[in-house]
Each structure stands twice: as C-alpha cells, then as structure tokens.
Amino acid sequence: MFTIITMPLIPMRKEAGDQYEMVSQLLFGQQIEILEITDNWYFVKNLSDGYEGWIGKKSLIPKHFTGEMTDTSGFIATKIPLVVCFKTSSVEKITLPGGSMLPRIDRDQFELLGEIYQIAQTEPVYTKSGHAQLIVELAHQYINAPYLWGGKSLFGMDCSGLTQVVYSMAGIYLPRDASQQVELGTVVDFLSEVQPGDLAFFANSEGSIIHTGILINSHQIIHASGCVKKEIIDSQGIISSQNGEYSHHLRVIKRLL
After folding, report:
1. Contact (CB, 8 A) for 27 and 9
2. In the chain, pLDDT over 70 holds for what percent of residues?
3. Which residues are CB-contacts of 245 (< 8 A; sequence separation ≥ 6)?
4. What are the structural domain ranges in the chain?
5. What per-residue confidence (pLDDT) applies to 125?
6. pTM for this prediction
7. How many whole angstroms separate alpha carbon 159 and alpha carbon 174?
8. Residue 253 CA: distances (Å) to CA of 40, 142, 171
9. Residue 131, by phi and psi: left (phi above 0), alpha (psi -120 to 50) or beta?
10. What is the mean pLDDT of residues 46-58?
11. Which CATH number describes the domain made up of 130-255?
C-alpha cells in the first residue's frame, strides 16, 4: 500500500514504539510505501530516499491508502524553513517545515489527496546565481536550529538532515545518512579548491563517516552539532568555536553539483 504524508512531519522510529529512537522524519508531501502493519504501528519506506522505519498508525488516514504509487515527479520542495497554509475546507492552519513536497501551485493554492490548501505567504526570490550559492543561502536559514538526532526541521535536525533538506530545496535529492551521502559526487582534493555548497565528510577513529556539513568557502562550514552553526574548518577538520579544539576530523570533500 502507498500513501502521501499530510501531517507537517512524522517521526520515524527504529522500532515500533514511542519509546524507541527516532531515526528520521517524514515531511509533508512525501510518499511512503507501507511494508508491515502491527496493532498500532506501520513499518514504512520513504520513497523519497529509501529510508525505512516505524510510524504510529494515528499519523495516517487509511482512506488515503492506494494500491499503486502516485506520480509525485512534479512535486517541488519548499525553500523556507516554515510555510503557513490553510485548509480551505475548514480554515484550519497547518505549518509545514522546509523541504516539504508540494504539488503544482496555482494562485497560491495546491491540492493534495482531495484537500485544497491556501498558502499564506509567498517564498522570497532567491537572487544567488547557480545551485552552489543558492545552497549556502538556503543553509543559512537554519542557523541556530537545535540539534536533534533524526530531525529534519527548524525545530531540530541532525547533520545529514540539514544537508538532505537544504539540497532538496535546490531540487537535488540525497540519501538520508552521511554514510550514504558520501558515496555520491566527485572528490575535491584540497580545501583551496572547494566551491560553495560542496559537502565535507568527517570520520571517527575507525574511519567510519559519522558527520557532514555544507562548505561556505575554503575555511567556513555550516553544520549541525549542538545546533546549526558556522565554524572554521582546515585540512584537519572543524575547529570548535567553543574551545578552539578539533571537534570533527575531515575525511573527504565531495562535489555533488
């Protein structure tokens, strides 16, 4: 079975239960496949990135379930951290996180699963030329968002949630985890050769990729650690703005644009 998310966001958990770790979040407009059903939980796959996890049954409306996938190829990710909409049938407000997937918009309205939504504000016009500068501008919108493992919104996000959401805003769809994202793109050999929007990846002592961030230039990075923030980077890694020590050790830089 398939359906489309109509809640602002839904936590995906590692196991079936509210007490279990949140591994990601589903955003409004993303399509999922329901793989398994228990009394109170669905095991689902996010068709946007292939990520799988458990979500509570109360989060979905059974009448919206279909036997086939819906063509969502024309959906576009929202480019601001919060988008306020109203359901025209009830004048009920719904606030959508950045990166939510919306179908074609006509006169600030769109329709999804039989419900018509009115967008209360328009997105700003982004003047940056090219994807590279745009990605950096979009990432700046999340400065000071708190860190939240598995999070993908202004109210909490992790490092790969930041990169995934920001890239989706620019029309580029990445896998969920840093260890998956690092498999994409081409290697940039030196920091002096980076372009805005390149992704830096960082490893633990065993060499496993555990962190990522968006490079602003050859010496600054935006990443989620404690909160989303700008910090200094050199060839060894990220220098903490709190204590001046290295907080993450650089493994590789990749260009996806």
Report:
1. yes
2. 97
3. 239
4. 2-64, 76-119, 130-255
5. 64
6. 0.94
7. 13
8. 42, 22, 21
9. alpha
10. 97
11. 3.90.1720.10
